[in-house]
Specification:
heterotrimer, A mainly alpha, B mainly alpha, C mainly alpha, A: mainly alpha, two-stranded antiparallel sheet, two-stranded antiparallel ribbon, globular, B: mainly alpha, 28 helices, about 70% helix, elongated
């Protein structure tokens, strides 16, 4: 029975459904169907991938283990281009499943949120579908070729979403370019490195792009075709193919692994917006249309963290251990800079609500970066690492939900009031009580209030980081306080404080559709805050094993 | 029977249910209904808690399999010497569920009942019930009543959950939820503004409270991380795999931690930071007086009786760690300093609620100091009695303010200023008598509850041989009696002075209600006062010197009655009362505008009135530092942006070089080639005239050329 | 007995034939009138005929190949003249002229 079920290519279906949705939207464009129909149709169709992921969640077996690693499930493995040994290899494990679910959940929400888009509705929805497909593909691809393909593919719709539907016609173009160029430039190192690894494993006997195999090699475990350590394999290759290089720089395997490590790290750090690679983020988040900022903040930034956990740490454990304090410090600087920038926005009458949320995003992704450092660091015991990883996972999901909700609500506010300058907002609690309430929940979830999802991640990360890099954990608490201050001052200004000049119109209350959009996010924030095992049970096993 | 122990989870759940129902159902538009629902549910929770206390007193115990046992009544020896003794009791019931996986193990949360918890549950539910009841009357005219009751129910639920948490993580969760409710309730009148822009508004006070306590909270969180890392668990208890396991305590007591502290000291210090924030000890005390911007029942429940005591409870809960550490003297010092410092400031305040707030600070300092010198039972005892009499005083103050509204209108600045009051005992007899009981309890006059508990703290400090602590506490007691006498004289005695123009008040237009005489509050407000007055009068019976019921109940060593301490305490209280009486008997009469103390020591009084400039100091130091850090971080970002635009400029220059290369060499060359090809083609096509004769001529020309080549080049 | 082969050297005859060929070629290349061109072609053919006969007589008199070739050329020239004249007539019919300068339909 189960076997039959598993032979259906679920993951391919999952990635293809949004693409089919895109075709449908295109078809609707040809048939000149009304925009209203396209909107609701797109939302309805986007529930299909969500349903698929929920089904996978119920079928997923978090306890499945084989040869010391968690079994990748729902595997599809088809030889694709034999000449360069590219396989169509897709699978899901505890690391990717929560993120897939997050992606599939945030897409309908982003679509519902962009009902207010009036211009070029069909391309807008088509691009959202494309973005979803790319992100889903990225999370399930286990061969570098497809991994990289989806990684780069996700840039395209995001770029066009920012450029085409951004709020400020003067700023959106530079923001989109900055975002695109930055990410693209960062990924060059990763591409080159994988080509190098391909050549190196080729010399060792079996060239491969297989991420699972490479990760096993990175940790010194044998694969069916290869044995040995990735570091040695890499060094042997360089030594053989370019002796002048090893002669010049010295015969230190770790040196070359470190270079490789940084090549990949920068790619993921840009996506995750680790300081100092974060400068694209405030512009991109605040200029993007509401769907764009929701998907960018909620899901795309997680692609960086996922990459770190999937590729960076397993491939180069030695280099990661070596640089963990440095990465942790960079992440810590991000935590502090994000927090203080958020506070600066909150105190500046010209401060922008969305820039503030973007800054807290930098702060929160800094915690994830710290967790990655803790996972890699030398001082941590296995359990602490597993806890840090769980924390990173919880933080990613919670941040996706809470920041998604905040951007959604900021978008609604912008729509109603025509501004997101904090100095021009005020006293909205009376005019929009429900929005004030849900925004309150999202705000408190963002500042890590226990009982809401944000706390779980922060606490577990702190616990994990404490074991490895206690000093960083202590200093990071400043970030916790300052973010709270920024968010509360923002909230007070927007909802409690007096409105500068006049009152709000009374017809700006949330409408049913908007409430419906934000409701699942709020509900999930509360549910995951009260019972985080729903997510952590899925990932814990994979993460615990990864952390050995 | 024995359902109460099993059903203890109902205690926090019932108020939470009230919160959920009021928030999510149409009841939220129904003020009276939501008030009644919240009060009813907390009443039921109180009954469960009372039943629970009864069962715990009886010694019933349920183990993890559900088996029942009855413990013998605790027989404890009398305390000997200066050694701090503390015994962790076996819990009467523990029930947990799996909350989250954490690597190889799992985090389990649940509830745990032991005698201290049962006692605290009873205290909190009783106080909360009285305050709910009081609020029905006090908040009757507020349009956002439903919201108020939802939040206060949520708060009660969080407080109860914190008390019974079986795991320090759950304790911390509830701890922070209380902070949230405190924020929401302080800022309850979020749209209120004052004429004086320097006066703190409720919304700013709320943020201040949340952030100040959060400073302590994040350090507590780090402390919990540290403890978890060391112990591998955060489960409360002294069994294997729990935080108070003797072997573990033994290990961390001697293991070197950071900064030349032992590990135990470092952990305890971080945990104590949480206490300093939540229980508003110096230096994080600044939020509590401003928290008085919230409605008065909130001040009574959260900022006097329960939440602020959570910090004390935290230390009491994790006391084995503190005993294993070396920081108890620090705890004692912080507590004693706060007790004295806050009592001093209270002398210089005119706002009836702020005086009580500083008094709360001071009393919390007593409790913390008691913990610091090993008086665990004394601290818990004082916590319980203080909760009752301070809740009573706050509700009494609320009743006074409610009565004052009739005269001065809904202007909190005027209604809360004790210089506007006087002679209220004639208008509000019930309030007066109950307030008097609270006053005597706080001042530490036998036989009121405060006397017994304060006496026990003084006795402990006497016994522990710490003269500085003892001196500070005695001085604080004296000041307490003094400022409370000042308050009660100004509020209830003398002539009613609301007509006196007060130079501290700002708002001249008294609003809708004003102009009438103050009146006694409705019965829903006076009944809770009476209930609490009974407790304030009788709670001292818990641990009378002859029975030591509380010590036995909590399983801690008893102290013999110390007549010296009782004598000292009573003496200073009487001196304080006498001083206050002497100074304030005729204050603000006969057109006097200045406080008698201000007349005698103007500089000192002004400093006290300005709260010893702590807020100003923080604004100038930490506030400035934050602004600088903001500027630095913005500057760093700008520099990064500039660096980035530098890179992009370099890229642009490279691009221009590249473009010119393309243009000049590659592109130009190709163009030239193409142009040449075209030109030569054009020239060539001239040959093709289409005339056969021309072709023929070409053919012959070609033949000639080829012939010449053949002749002279190939064969020549 | 002195024969013509002794009296006149072969080169003289070849020069004559070359001159005749050149005259014909000149006519072909310069005449505007198509008939003139045709006449020029005839001259060139006959120059070739002279060569054929001359080589036969001077070099291999015991064979008849030269004469046969010459006869062939005469016959072909006659046919060619007939075809050429027919072409000229059809050209004239199409264009009302026999000026070859205007018959430039070959130009692309």
């Amino acid at each position: 029975m189960a076997y039959n079920v598993l032979t259906i290519p679920w993951l391919t279906l999952l990635v293809l459904t949004p693409l089919v949705g895109m075709l449908f939207v295109g078809l609707a464009g040809i048939l000149r169907l009304p925009d209203r129909l396209v909107r609701s149709g797109a939302v309805a169709w986007s529930l299909v991938p969500l349903g698929l992921t929920v089904w996978m969640y119920t079928q997923f077996n978090p306890q499945a283990l084989a040869s010391g690693q968690q079994v990748v499930q729902f595997v599809e493995r088809i030889p694709w281009t034999q000449a360069i040994r590219v396989e169509y290899f897709m699978g899901v494990d505890g690391l990717s499943l929560p993120l897939i679910m997050l992606t599939a959940l945030m897409t309908p929400i982003a679509m519902l949120a962009s009902f207010s888009v009036e211009r070029h509705v069909k391309p807008h929805y088509a691009l959202i579908f494309l973005l979803e497909a790319a992100m889903l593909g990225y999370f399930v691809a286990l061969n570098f070729f497809f991994f990289f393909l989806f990684w780069e593919l996700s840039l395209v719709p995001a770029f066009f979403l920012i450029q085409g539907w951004g709020n400020n016609p003067e700023k959106r173009q530079p923001a989109a370019f900055k975002f695109f160029i930055y990410t693209l430039a960062g990924s060059i190192g990763m591409l080159l490195l994988f080509l190098l690894l391909y050549a190196a494993t080729g010399l060792a006997g079996h060239a491969t792009f297989d991420i699972v195999d490479l990760a096993r090699l990175g940790q010194g475990l044998a694969t069916p075709e290869l044995s040995g350590n990735l570091q040695t394999i890499l060094f042997n290759f360089l030594d053989t193919s370019s002796p002048w290089l090893t002669d010049t720089l010295g015969r230190f395997p770790l040196l070359y692994t470190s270079i490789a490590f940084w090549a990949v790290f920068i790619a993921f750090a840009i996506k995750l917006a680790i300081w100092p690679f974060h400068t694209w983020l405030p512009d991109a988040y605040s200029e993007a249309p509401v769907a764009g900022s929701i998907l960018l903040a909620a899901v795309m930034s997680k692609m960086g963290a996922y990459g770190m956990l999937r590729v960076l740490v397993p491939f180069f454990p030695d280099a990661a251990r070596l640089f963990a304090p440095l990465i942790g410090s960079l992440a810590l600087v991000g935590v502090l800079v994000g927090a203080f920038n958020a506070l600066a926005q909150a105190r500046d009458p010209k401060g922008s609500l969305r820039r503030l949320i973007a800054s807290t995003s930098i702060n929160h992704m800094g915690y994830v970066g710290m967790a990655v450092a803790a996972i890699a660091a030398i001082g941590a015991d296995t359990n602490s690492r597993a806890i840090a990883m769980n924390g990173a996972m919880a933080q990613m999901v919670a941040h996706g939900l809470s920041t998604g909700a905040l951007f959604l609500l900021a978008g609604i506010l912008y729509e109603r009031t025509g501004t997101d300058q904090l100095g021009q907002l005020g006293g909205l609690r009376a005019a929009m009580p429900v929005l004030a309430g849900v925004m309150g929940v999202a705000t408190f979830a963002t500042l890590g209030l226990p009982g809401l999802a944000g706390f779980v991640g922060e606490f577990l990360i702190m616990r994990g980081v404490w074991a490895a890099l206690p000093l960083l954990a202590i200093v990071a608490t400043i970030g916790l306080v300052v973010t709270a201050m920024a968010l509360l001052e923002m909230y007070g200004r927007v909802f409690h404080g007096p409105l500068p000049g006049g009152t709000h119109p009374s017809d700006i209350k949330l409408i049913g559709r908007e409430f419906l959009v934000v409701l699942p996010l709020i509900a999930l924030l509360i549910v995951l805050g009260i019972y985080p095992a729903l997510i952590l049970d899925v990932s814990n096993q994979a993460l615990a094993i990864l952390s050995r | 029977m024995l359902s109460f122990l099993q059903q203890a989870w109902l205690i926090p759940l019932l108020p939470f249910l009230a919160f959920v129902i009021i928030t999510l159902t149409p009841l939220r538009r129904h003020n009276r209904g939501s008030a009644l629902l919240a009060t009813l549910l907390i009443g039921v929770a109180m009954l469960v808690a009372l039943g629970l206390l009864y069962e715990v007193t009886d010694g019933w115990q349920i183990d993890s399999n559900g088996a029942l046992a009855q413990l013998p009544v605790n027989q404890v020896p009398e305390a000997m010497g200066e050694q701090i003794e503390f015994r962790t009791l076996a819990p009467h019931i523990v029930r947990t569920i799996r909350w989250a996986p954490a690597g190889d193990s799992a985090i389990r949360l649940g509830f745990l009942i032991d005698p201290a918890v049962a006692l605290m549950l009873t205290m909190v539910t009783v106080a909360a019930f009285c305050i709910h009841l009081f609020s029905i009357g006090y908040m009757a005219e507020d349009a956002r009543q439903a919201r108020f009751f939802a939040f206060i129910a949520l708060f009660t639920s969080a407080m109860l959950l914190m008390l019974m948490a079986s795991n320090l993580i759950l304790l911390f969760i509830a701890w922070e939820l209380m902070g949230l409710c405190s924020y929401l309730l302080i800022g309850f009148w979020y749209d209120r503004d004052y004429a004086d822009p320097r006066q703190i508004t409720p919304r700013r006070a709320a943020i201040k409270a949340f952030i100040t306590t959060r400073i302590g909270d994040v350090l507590l969180m780090v402390g919990l991380c540290y403890l978890w890392f060391q112990a591998g668990t955060l489960e409360i208890g002294n069994g294997a795999g729990q935080v108070f396991h003797p072997d573990f305590l033994q290990r961390i007591a001697h293991e070197a931690g950071p900064f030349e502290l032992t590990t135990a000291s470092a952990i305890a210090l971080l945990l104590f930071c949480g206490t300093v924030g939540k229980s508003a000890q110096v230096p994080l005390h600044v939020w509590l007086p401003d928290a008085m911007e919230g409605p008065t029942p909130v001040s009574a429940l959260i900022h006097a009786a329960t939440m602020v005591a959570a910090g004390v409870f935290l230390v009491a809960r994790t006391y084995p760690l503190f005993v294993a550490s070396q920081i108890l003297p620090l705890v004692a010092a912080v507590g004693a300093f706060t007790a004295l410092f806050a009592a001093l400031i209270a002398v210089g305040q005119f706002d009836i609620k702020r005086i009580l707030a500083y008094s709360t600070l001071s009393q919390l300092g007593f409790m913390v100091a008691a913990l610091g010198i090993g008086g665990w039972t004394a601290a818990i005892f004082h916590l319980v009695t203080h909760a009752f009499f301070k809740a009573l005083l706050f509700l009494g103050a609320g009743s006074v303010i409610h009565g004052m509204y009739a005269t001065v209108g809904h202007d909190t600045n005027r209604a809360q200023d004790i210089r506007n009051m006087g002679g209220l005992r004639r208008f509000m007899p019930v309030t007066y008598w109950t307030y008097l009981i609270g006053y005597l309890a706080l001042a530490g006059i036998a036989p009121f509850a405060g006397f017994w508990s304060k006496d026990e703290i003084l006795a402990t400090s006497l016994q522990s041989g710490q003269p500085i602590i003892l001196g500070a506490l005695l001085l604080a007691s004296l000041l307490t009696a003094f400022y409370m006498t000042r308050q009660i004289l100004l509020v209830f005695f003398g002539p009613f002075r609301s007509a006196v123009a007060i130079h501290y008040s700002h708002d001249e237009n008294s609003s809708q209600h004003g102009g009438r005489e103050p009146h006694e509050s409705p019965r829903s407000m006076t009944i809770p006062l009476i209930i609490l007055a009974i407790f304030a009068l009788g709670a001292g019976a818990l641990n009378l010197p002859n029975s030591h019921w509380l010590s036995h109940f909590l399983g801690q060593p008893t102290h013999a009655f110390n007549p010296t301490a009782a004598l000292l305490g009573t003496t200073v209280a009487v001196i304080g009362i006498a001083l206050g009486f002497a100074l304030y008997r005729r204050a603000f009469t006969a057109g006097e505008q200045l406080d008698p103390l201000e007349q005698r020591m103007p500089g000192v009084f002004r400093a006290l009135h300005a709260r010893l400039y702590v807020d100003e100091f923080y604004a100038a130091s930490i506030g400035r530092l934050t602004a600088v850090l903001i500027a630095i971080s913005a500057w760093v970002d700008r520099q990064l942006g500039r660096g980035l635009s530098g890179i992009s400029r370099i890229t642009a220059v490279l691009g221009r070089i590249n473009a010119s290369m393309d243009e000049q060499i590659l592109n130009g060359g190709a163009d030239q080639l193409a142009r040449g090809t075209t030109a030569s083609g054009n020239r060539m096509r001239q040959l093709e005239s289409g005339k056969a004769q021309d072709y023929l001529a070409l053919i012959f020309g070609g033949v000639l050329v080829l012939g010449a080549v053949a002749l002279y080049l190939l064969h020549g | 007995m002195t024969t013509i082969t002794d009296a006149i050297p072969l080169s003289w005859i070849l020069v004559l034939a070359g001159a005749l060929f050149c005259i014909g070629l000149f006519g072909v290349l310069t005449r505007r009138n198509a008939v003139g061109v045709l006449l020029g072609v005839e001259l060139m053919l006959n120059a070739v005929n002279i060569n054929l006969i001359a080589f036969w007589r001077y070099l291999e008199p015991h064979l008849v190949a030269g004469q046969v070739f010459a006869l062939f050329v005469v016959v072909v020239a006659a046919a060619e003249a007939a075809v050429g004249l027919a072409l000229i007539i059809s050209l004239y019919r199409a264009r009302q002229t026999v000026n070859v300068d205007q018959a430039d339909a070959l130009q692309g």
